[in-house]
Design goal:
It contains 15 helices and no strands. By secondary structure, it is mainly alpha-helical. The protein folds into 3 domains: 86 residues, Serine Threonine Protein Phosphatase 5, Tetratricopeptide repeat; 83 residues, Serine Threonine Protein Phosphatase 5, Tetratricopeptide repeat (Alpha Horseshoe), CATH 1.25.40.10; 52 residues. Helix 2 runs parallel beside helix 4, helix 8 runs parallel beside helix 10 and helix 14 runs antiparallel to helix 15.
Length: 282
């Protein structure tokens, strides 16, 4: 279905052409309608990328790109929709085709690197990022640079990129969580705890950061839950995570008590905690 603004635009275009004489009028009308179709398709593409079912978006862009193989925007839409649908193996060559187009941008290169990281091809992702001029300074670029530096265990470089990325976005919770997890894997749980707490302050709904915060506290022998927003179900899950941390550190009795607390706290039967408790009892 075309949107109302398209119909109005079409009427205006036809009205403007009404005074043209017959021989050329038809061509002018065709060109005007073609321009309107492009506007309408662009609007539909935006909708497909943001609101449509991921699988349906892939099918739409596959059909559109086949019918218009020279349209860069449709190739780009297909690549984005494949990533959104979790079809990483297909997304990598799709982004490669986009970046091979003469109209490709530096942002396309960053998106290509993102797809490569999702596919686990860190070395190639680094090559793609290195080929992008340093003047292209965006949050997404620095977030990926930080992740690549992490993978290479270049800790100071990773910290620098994470810090820059945080300063380039108004929604830093995700990158703060990544940075904290990096610190946790390096054996710096206190620094990780601080970063996870910052992430939760930015996004109180980010359960991954809550779970990571508990892991960081458990690694330090802190077996109490932090004062953060949580539902009853989340509380049970975090108690279970804390119990696992305690058992890993050899504090078995503490872990057993935390598993029991998780079972009592959860509003329903909590199978993971029950299995953990049964394993300790056996």
């Amino acid at each position: 279905m075309r949107h109302p603004f398209t119909v109005a635009l079409c009427a205006a275009a036809l009205g403007a052409l009404a005074g043209c004489d017959a021989p050329s009028g038809g061509n002018e009308v065709d060109r005007a309608l073609a321009d309107i179709d492009v506007v309408d398709e662009t609007n539909l593409s935006d909708v497909m990328l943001s609101a449509a079912d991921p699988a349906e978006a892939v099918r739409y862009f596959q059909r559109a790109a086949q019918q218009n193989p020279d349209r860069l925007d449709l190739k780009r839409g297909l690549a984005k929709s494949l990533v959104r649908a979790g079809r990483t193996t297909e997304a990598v060559p799709a982004w490669e085709r986009v970046t091979a187009d003469e109209g490709a941008t530096h942002a396309d290169g960053v998106a290509f690197a993102d797809a490569l990281i999702r596919a686990g091809d860190w070395a190639r992702a680094e090559e793609v990022l290195d080929a992008i001029p340093p003047t292209h300074e965006t949050f997404r670029r620095y977030r990926l640079e930080a992740m690549v530096a992490d993978a290479n265990e270049e800790w100071e470089t990773a910290d620098s990129f994470y810090e820059t990325a945080v300063g380039l976005t108004t929604q830093p919770a995700g990158v703060l969580n990544n940075w904290g997890y990096s610190k946790l894997t390096r054996g710096a749980p206190a620094e990780a705890e601080r970063l996870f707490a910052q992430a939760i302050r930015q996004d109180p709904e980010l359960f991954t950061a809550k779970n990571n915060l508990v892991l960081a506290r458990g690694a330090q022998g802190k077996y109490t839950l932090p004062v953060i927003p949580m539902t009853q179900t989340e509380r049970a899950q975090l108690l279970h995570t804390l119990g696992l941390s305690a058992v890993k550190r050899g504090d078995v009795a503490t872990g057993e008590g935390l598993f029991r607390d998780a079972l009592e706290t959860h509003p329903q039967y909590y199978e993971p905690a029950a299995r953990s408790l049964a394993a300790l009892e056996d």
